[in-house]
Amino acid sequence: MLKKILCIKNLGLFSNAERTSPDFDKATLIYAENGRGKSTLASILRSCAKDDTESIRNRQTLDSGNLPEIKLLFKNGTSHKQAKFDGEKWSCSYPDIIVFDTEFVDNNVYPGT
After folding, report:
1. Distance separating alpha carbons of residues 46 and 66, to the nearest angstrom
2. Alpha-helical regions (H) of the chain
3. pLDDT at residue 112, rounded to an integer
4. According to the model, what pLDDT value does residue 6 have?
5. pTM across the whole model
6. Closest Cα to residue 97, out of 43, 59, 22, 39?
7. What's the DSSP call for residue 30?
8. In sequence order, what E strands does 1-113 have?
9. How far is CA 82 from the centre of its chain?
10. What does the CA dihedral 95, 101, 106, 108 come to, rounded to 10 degrees?
11. What's the chain's average pLDDT?
12. What is the C-alpha separation between 81 and 3, in angstroms, rounded?
C-alpha cells in the first residue's frame, strides 16, 4: 500500500517537492483546483503501477535540464520499501495501485449501445 510520496522533482509543476505528502490510507481521495498537479500525480501512480516510463517522460518540467526524480514509500505489514524513478526507470513496480480518473474512465467505462 502506498504510504507516502517522499519526493517529486522536475515533473510538471513539481520542481522540488520533498516530504510534503500526508500519509495515505487504503483509499485516498486527492482533490484541488485546476492546474495544481492532480493529473501529474495520477500519471506518477499509474506509471509506477504499470512500470511505464513514457508518461513520466512526457510530463518533465519544461526548461529543466534535470531528469525527473520520484520516490514513493510503500508499506507491507510492518516493512517499508521505496519505489524510485531515477529519470530512466522505476526501481520496482506496484501493480495493485488503481487510479480512478478520466483516463481510467476512458479506458474502462463504455457507454451503452
Report:
1. 22
2. 38-50, 54-57, 102-108
3. 60
4. 93
5. 0.85
6. 43
7. -
8. 2-11, 14-18, 69-76, 79-85
9. 13
10. 50
11. 88
12. 10
Quote the cell numbers at residue 17.
517537492
CA separation for the pair 19, 22 (Å, rounded)? 8
The string of pLDDT tens digits covering residues 3-19 is 999 999 999 888 888 87
| pLDDT at 109 exceeding the cut of 90 | no
Model confidence band, residue 55 (pLDDT cutoffs 50, 70, 90): confident
- CA–CA separation, 62 and 86 (whole Å): 18
Q: Which amino acid is at 19?
A: R
What torsion, rounded to 10 degrees, do the Cα atoms 44, 110, 32, 9 define?
10
Longest dimension (CA), the chain: 48
